[in-house]
Amino acid sequence: MSRAADRLRLLINHLDPSPASIRSEPTFAQTSTYSHPQRLRYTFETDLLTPEQRVFYEENGFLLIKNLVSEEDIDRFRKAFERICRQEVKVPGLVVMRDVAIAKSEFVPDQKAVSKLQDFQEDPELFRYCSLPQILKYVECFTGPNIMAMHTMLINKPPDAGKKTSRHPMHQDLHYFPFRPADRIVCSWTAMEKVTRQNGCLVVLPGTHQGTLQEHDYPEWEGGVNKMYHGVRGYDPQQPRVHLEMEKGDTVFFHPLLIHGSGMNQTQGFRKAISCHYASGDCYYIDVKGTTQENIEHEALDIAVRKYGVEGDVHFKDVWMIRGRLVQGERVSL
User: Fold this and answer.
1) CB-based contacts of 119, cutoff 8 Å, min separation 6
2) Beta bridge partners of 203
3) What's the fold here for domain 61-328?
4) Which parts of the chain are beta strand (E)?
C-alpha cells in the first residue's frame, strides 16, 4: 500500500462521527471550512492527489492547482489563437464565437470581437493543451485511465461594452453533454494570464456538484446574451460563492454539475483562458429527449446541420462523437 493510500485509509477510518472540519491547502483558490464526507466517490487513488485534496474536491467540486502549465506553452497557445483570429489558418470544425455587443477586436479583420474558439480539436498546437502530461495525470484522478477529450475551448473574454454581455450566466456544464456518468467527467480550465474579479474570473458555488442537473435557458438580460450561453433557471444570486482568482498557468479542475459562471470584464484588456472537458472512454451516450436538456439538443443540432452541411437524421450524440478525441487509453463507448 502506498504512503498516500495509507494516509487516505487512515483519514477515512478515523473520521470523527461529529461534524469535523477541513481547511484547504495553499494550492486552492480560497481557504474555507467544510465537513468531512463519509465516503469518496468523485476521485480515484492514483498516488497524485493528497487525501486533503480528494476530500476538498469531494466537498466542493473543484480543485485549483497552481502553476501547472508553463509560460512557454501558454505563449504558444496565444500565438496559435492570434493566427486563427487573423484568418491566417483554417481549422476544420472550429467554431468562432463573437460577443453580441462588441464592435471591434484586437485581431479579427472584420472588426467583430472573437469571444471564444470552440472545438479546436483539429488544430495541432491548441489541441496539444489537451495532451499535456501534467494535465492528464490530474484528469486520470477523476476519469480513470481511459481519457477522451470531448469539448475544447479558448475563451477570450472581451472588455464589456456597457451591455454586461461579457458575463457568463451561472450554469452546469452537464447541461450540454449527452453522456454519463457525470462523476467520470471533468473540466480543466487554465488561466492564460492573471485572472481577477476585475477581468471576470470564474465564480463557483461550492458543493453544488452534489446536486442534480437543473433546468437551463437563456437569462432575461437587458443587454442580450451570447449564443449558447444558457443559465440555471431560478438561480439565487444570494447563494455562497467563491471567486477563483488565478495566476498565469494556474489550472482548476471541476465537476460538470458544479454551478459556475463569470462576471463582466471591467478592464480594457481581453481575458484569456484555455480549457478542455474530459470524459472517461467508458462513458456512454444517453437520449435527452423529454429531459431538461432537450432545448440545448435542438439548438446544437441546428448549428451542426449548418456547420457540417449534413442532411437526414442527425442525433445529439453524433455531434459529440465528431468532437471527441482519444488522448489516453482506449475509446470504449464514446
Assistant:
1) 93, 94, 95, 151, 152, 323
2) 243, 261
3) Jelly Rolls (2.60.120)
4) 22-23, 33-34, 62-65, 95-98, 114-118, 147-157, 168-171, 179-180, 185-191, 202-204, 216-217, 231-232, 242-244, 251-254, 260-262, 271-280, 284-285, 325-328
Task: Record the cell numbers describing residue 39, joined without a space.
Answer: 465516503
List pLDDT tens digits, range 229-250: 778 888 788 889 999 999 999 9
DSSP state of 161: -
Contact 266, 198 (CB under 8 A): yes
Q: How far apart are CA 334 and CA 281, in angstroms?
A: 6
- The answer to whether 117 touches 77, Cβ cutoff 8 Å, is no
Is 195 buried (19+), middle (13-18) or exposed (0-12) by CB count in 10 A?
A: buried
What is the helix (H) or strand (E) element at residue 123, kind and residue range?
Answer: none
What is d(CA 255, CA 209) in angstroms, rounded to the nearest whole number?
Answer: 6
For residues 279 and 233, what is the distance between their CA atoms, to the nearest angstrom?
26
Q: What is the pLDDT of residues 29-64, one digit of tens each?
A: 443 444 444 579 999 999 999 999 999 999 999 999
User: Do the Cβ atoms of 142 and 184 come closer than 8 Å?
Assistant: yes
Domain boundaries, the chain: 61-328
- Stated pTM of the model: 0.84
Name the grid cell of 308. Answer: 457540417
- The pLDDT assigned to 104 comes to 53
Residue with cell 485572472: 195
pLDDT digits (tens, 9 = 90+) for 147-157: 999 999 999 99
The three cell numbers of residue 210 are: 452534489
**Number of neighbours of residue 215 by Cβ within 10 angstroms:** 13
Neighbour count for residue 262 (Cβ, 10 Å): 24
Helix (H) or strand (E) holding 142: helix 133-143
- Output the CA angle 42-239-99, nearest 5 degrees: 85
Q: Any residues with CB less than 8 A from the CB of 149 and at least 6 apart, and which?
A: 121, 127, 130, 131, 276, 277, 278, 324, 325, 326, 327
E strands of 158-256, at which residues?
168-171, 179-180, 185-191, 202-204, 216-217, 231-232, 242-244, 251-254
